[in-house]
Amino acid sequence: MGAPDAASSRTDVYLDWAASTPMRPEAIETMVTAAQAGFGNPTGSHHVARTARRLVDDARDEVADVVGALPSEIVFCGSGTEADNLAIFGSQAHSGGTTACAAVEHHAVLHPVQHLGGAVVNVDSRGHVDLDHLREVATAELSVLSVMLANNETGVIQPLEPIRAVLDAQAPRALLHTDAVQAFPWLDLREAAVCADLISLSGHKFGGPKGVGVLVVRDRARLSAQVLGGGQEFEMRSGTHNVAGIAAFGTAARLMHAQRDSVVARVGALRDRLVSGLQDAVGGITETAMPAQADGAAADRSHKVAGSAHLCFDGIESEALLFMLERQGLAASAASSCASGAQDPSHVLAAMGYSRELAGGSLRLSLGFGSTGDDVDRALAIIPPCVDQLRTAAA
Ligand code: PLP
């Protein structure tokens, strides 16, 4: 797709889809139509209000369908971050007890758990939860455990079934929350998240708008609301609905779900070509979270989402590389995107056992539903000379 419409005019190659995606044209169209027709307050009783309410309810049905939940289990809120916060604080506030999360969680989960003095569960070198450590943490007092379905830096998919089994055996009161913000574009949540009680989504990761999130709250789960007021969203999240944004979220979610299989196949092949092309062109690259493989064997990335390429370059500082790439018109990132834009050392790579030195040279190239072969060709033309130049300068 080259440059997303909304990107800076200097950006020709956009490889930061895990940070945010351009909105799909259909979602923009829905948003504009809904902003015009659905300006009423959905909580009212007259026909203008009812039109707005219908838009929200239609989106609720669409989201429920694609995640395998009931419409009454879909709670719209203001972002993926808010959904994560509601899951952690809301579970703990309802049942008391303790909280826990995996060490590789996004800060939207990690910080609430740390704020509540919760436990951080170790992971192995792939970023999968250490089940022995989880067995120590999963006591009868645990109110919520949060484990993300796909990691925003490495793209590693976390199988949830073994985690659920530990909770069922040792902490039957505990809710299992999964942050599926990065997983939804790539995985069918009706299967991959079927054993989770709470699931977070964010619109801007799959062609929907920013500032709209969803927390799926399964019927069996109980939470205390964290935003009080008019009692919207089944008393779980007060505040007048963002009708246009919610409607656009529904459209984008439906399209992502319908096209997922073909997107995964197409983009997965592009990602593989990108990684092997870089490995052929540049030495000293570590692809994170990869098992040792036999010489000549094709790399198996089935444990990662299809759009994710995460590499560490020996002898390179991420920040310097990103600066050079941006000057060449390529937008990518290193660790997760954060408010300051600063490149903090990655807590994800640290938890997986990578040295600070290696992690300091990480590059996240993330593809999405609009990525093209031309993006890969141009990335392969741009990145190797930049790496060579930086290494020569450092020598
Ligand atoms: N969780 C994960 C895994 C993410 O990647 C992000 C965004 O980068 C979030 C949560 C936060 O979502 P939002 O940007 O909608 O607040």
Key traits:
Aspartate Aminotransferase, domain 2; alpha/beta; single chain; about 400 residues; three-stranded antiparallel beta sheet; binds pyridoxal-5'-phosphate; seven-stranded mixed beta sheet; disordered N terminus; Aspartate Aminotransferase, domain 1; 2 domains
Could you characterize what this model shows?
The chain has helices at residues 25-37, 47-67, 80-95, 107-115, 131-137, 161-170, 189-192, 243-281, 318-327, 347-351, 356-359, 373-394, and strands at residues 13-14, 74-77, 98-102, 119-121, 142-146, 175-179, 198-202, 213-217, 285-287, 308-313, 330-331, 362-366. It has twelve helices and twelve strands. It has 395 residues and is of the alpha/beta class. A seven-stranded mixed beta sheet has the order 2-8-7-6-5-3-4, sandwiched between helices. It has a three-stranded antiparallel beta sheet with strand order 9-10-12. Strands 1-11 form a two-stranded parallel sheet. It has two domains: 13-22 and 260-394, Aspartate Aminotransferase, domain 1 (Alpha-Beta Complex); 25-256, 3-Layer(aba) Sandwich (Aspartate Aminotransferase, domain 2), CATH 3.40.640.10. It starts with 12 loop residues before the first strand and ends with a helix. Helix 2 packs parallel to helix 8 (243-281) and helix 8 crosses helix 12 (373-394). The model is unreliable at 2-9 and 336-340 (pLDDT under 50). The protein is globular. Helix content is 41%, strand content 13%. Bound molecules: pyridoxal-5'-phosphate. The site of pyridoxal-5'-phosphate has 15 residues, from helix 3. Pyridoxal-5'-phosphate (PLP) binds next to helix 3.
